[in-house]
Design a protein that fits this description.
alpha/beta; Rossmann fold; three-stranded parallel sheet; 15% strand; elongated
Amino acid sequence: MAADALIFTTPHYGACDMSGAMKNLLDHLDFLTMSVAPREAIFRKKAFIITTGSGSAAAIKPIRSFIKNWGINRVYSYGIRMFTDKWDKMPEAKRSKHEKALRRAARAFYAAPVKRPYIPTVFMYHMFKFVIKRYIGEGNYPYEYWKDRGYFTKRPF
């Protein structure tokens, strides 16, 4: 995984948390969760979530949850609350305000150093290690994956 960071963007549609395309992407990448097949490189990545719509914060929360379960190091977000379906239909003053705030958030995101993973991420990693080692056992996919990568004897972060 050569990217320094991952950026996710989705509109928020009414009662739904995120777009169907974003939900499909996250479901498709579900194998990246720490309980199945964590990737060592992901523990050193940061992510930025950008959402638009009337309830953009509602779309950020589930995406953040999904990618934290992958072991993403740090997650940043910015929700653009807009009550129109097109950026150009938003009043100029509001658009300008969001552009400035998004630039500020992007600068903070790019300048942020990669740190140790969140404490809950480290806890989840050790919990999954215990469960896979004790209850899944040899011959099963998650166990063999973790064993082949040495995750039972070393931490990937």
